[in-house]
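Pinned message: reference record for S-layer protein
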Amino acid sequence: MKITNILVAFFICVTFAAVPAMAGVKYISGEPDISVAISGTNEFDPGDDVSLAIIVQNSGLKNSKIIQSSVVDRDDLPDTAKMVVVTLESGDAPVTVKSDPQMIGDIAGGLTKSLVFNLKVDKNAAPGEYNLDTVVKYKYLYNADQIGTDSIRYFYKDVNLEIALPLKINSDLDIEVGNVAVESMNVGTEGYISMDVKNTGYETGQDSVVKITRSPGSAVVPTDSSVFVGEFAPGEIKSVTFKAAVSDNGEAKNYPVLVSVDYKDSEGDQKTSDSVTIGVDVGGKVDFEAVSKTSEIHPGQKGKITIEYKNTGDATAYNAVARISAVDPFTSNDDTAFLGDLAPGQTATGVYDVSVDSEATIKTYGIDTEIRYRDALDNSQISDSMKAQVELTPRSGFEVFTNPIVLTVVLFAIIGAGYFVWSRRKNE
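Predicted structure (tokens):
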């Protein structure tokens, strides 16, 4: 049994002795070769928000190596850029870099990595070619000393690499808006908005059109929203006027409106400038109130209802015509009254002929009345409905003597009686 064990151990030793030792690899030259480039376009307009894609490439090569059984393999290769950190700086470009430095890890020789930086091009940036500064920091294995047959001492070198990235800023048309004025801009009506628009950019616009658009949530709604101004050179000012309406649910306050310019640039491409927000002052709506005292009339009588109207709004109503809605127990063949022009605070009186049913209940009634008028742009408008108070009162005993028929009969009776007395005295 012991002899068998000894033979097995002998054959195992012989087998291992026959297997050649594993050879190690040692690279004796090579290092990282880092380059940086912009992926996609590098041309931008003033005011652009840019997500700039950058590619970092390692073109490093391993030039020569040694393979020996006595060599211990290295953990890192000399052409690998380790712990790469990329920083983007504005350089001489009129931009603001919003992203912090980015760590992208190791880049082996022959590989690339991509990353994105966010930046903002200055709104008033002059056109031209600029350079962004890219700083790439990394380290690489530049030497490794083998100690004996089982240990290695590594030596790394730090690299701080600066690379310029070309950037082009295109010319652009930019605007500035001033001298904003309004005319007849009241709630529920239509009016005018005028302004001066200045080209503060570096591009001459061809076939330029100044536009206003509604700001989300604004009560001001453009109805004639564009003005053709043709060639629009840098520094030039265009005076333009637009027509706009104010919604009925608006209020008397300042509302935003967006202004922009559509144009063709020097290369014939269609472009639109950045929008500028302006404030538009809106006045209160045209409103009326029936301010007259309660009219009195009797059942079974034809009479007149007098209603005094006051313009309690903020704008003039032109060619105003008032109207009543005569319903039971009233009837009327004359239900309209011309009031003319009513400026804010002014009053006018409407008089209407009505008849009252003889069986009408004695009480106070409310008669609906409204006013149709023209606004400053000659648009037809109708006021909110108002109530005019009319009181039906009973006849008094003495009212019989105010009846024209009764008065006629009494008059003839008096005349007849007088004639009878005169004739009798004459005969005597």
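Pinned by admin. Summary line: The CA atoms of residues 91 and 132 lie 5 Å apart.
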